[in-house]
Design brief:
The chain has about 550 residues and is α/β, with parallel strands linked by helices. Helices cover about 45% and strands about 15% of the residues. α4 (about 125-150) packs parallel to α5 and α15 crosses α18 (about 510-525). The protein is globular and about 80 Å long.
Length: about 550
Amino acid sequence: MASRRHIPRYVFETSWEVCNKVGGIYTVLSTRARTLGARLGDNLVFIGPDCWHGQQCPYFIEDNELLRAWREQAAREGVLVRTGRWRVPGKPIALLVDFHAYFERKNEIYTRLWEDFRVDSLHAYGDYDESSMFAYAVAKAVESYYNYFRLDGERVVFHANEWMTGLAALYVRKHLPKVATVFTTHATSIGRSICGNHKPLYEYLHSYDGDQMAAELNMQSKHSVEKQTAHNVDCFTTVSDITAEECSVLLCKDCDKVLPNGFEDDFVRKGPAYDKQRRAARKRLLRVASCLTGKGFRSDAIILATSGRYEFANKGIDLFLSAVNRLRFDERLEREVVAFVEVPGWVKEPRQDLATRLLSTEKYYDALHYPQLTHWLHNQHEDLVMNTCEWLDMWNKPGDKVNIVFIPCYLTGDDGILNMPYYDALSAADLAVYPSYYEPWGYTPLEATAFSVPCITTDLAGFGLWVNSELGRSGILADGVEVIHRTDHNFNEVADRIRDVVIGFSRLDKNEVSRLRHNARMLSHKALWKEFITHYYDAYDIALRRAAERTRKKK
């Protein structure tokens, strides 16, 4: 008979993105919080950076009475913490730690890190120092909490996310040996760097040496702390099978558990409310496109969309633009297409000429200057999307049946042009395209399916591989997700395939489109946190058992 799974009594989880919405890990943690909190209650504690310089954090509900006695004791120990709750479903306890005071001890901290775990911080620069001091502050806060509340006899898990918090996991491992440590790398620093430097990753993966590549790409310190954390925690995890293989080769450490990223869809409107939201969002997007281009678009124009972090090649933004350009010249396409690139760039300000048009009731028949851009950019003449549009001559000319709109800002509802949250804008899309080259998981396609938007992704994305695994074959658009085979060298074939899928979609009738949208939604249900949370309990079990065994051996 199998032994019972060890369940933690306390979980401390840290990330640079706790109460700090800068990337996909924010979504991982914030959407999981309610499911995990339903079991752990206020014994689930998230820890993030206090990087707001005395200002109110919009994602944090500060509560000075919460844990007040401990917070005051921690302050006497030199650990400065703001207490409150994360403004997400479940409202878990969140601690924001002030890490700035530790910079003056940086060399001492790095020396200890080298002596204890052989982490090479000699080549540190830029965000390495900031992340490491944050991680050190996190570890000191956990140590203070652990000692104050006398958790020595409890099952406690400390969960660190990404290399930025590796130092925290290593400190906890040394100074709180009874605490079970879990480390999740969502994307290896060296793997991302290889791709970001336009080097082929997959065909040559097993020929790469992680340490050698770190030296070549000036990534020694980030790679070192990530690698040593992976080797020294009780349970090393990642988010997909494709990244697990990457970890095995580049970090020389097999993952103990894959933790696929789930999602909560309780905020997705349903029925008439969803239909109303979608109609309003479509109207707004097409209105923005019309005011930019001077064209009147039909209400049944196909809205294509891509979004995500501005990693031009890694996220497949280059492929999306290439596929859209091919659509322009394909006589099989009979419907209008408006393609939206919703990727935050270096925004200067909303375009006032566009904002003025949007407020007017007049009809315009001339295009604005730069008729594909909604916000002025600081680096407009260096921006990759704008340069690609110019190179491909995509200027939304009269007679073009395919038009492109670049919205280079975070869609928080107050951008000055669209003035619509991202999920509202997402619901307007007929088809979403995420042809990633480097994508450990891929929240953008998962979010699209949750909003009943069929999408295209690739089998180099963890989500795409999960879809194929779930279906037992490669996903096709009829399933709600088309998973295109992508390699290091088949860029043109993938662009052609995206074009063909869009053309096929354009020929579907309303009933067929409704079935696609339904299938996309049903597929997303299989990735809800209630389905995936068991993987986390498996990881906690592994860590708790190993920590218990480790401490027994030391007695």
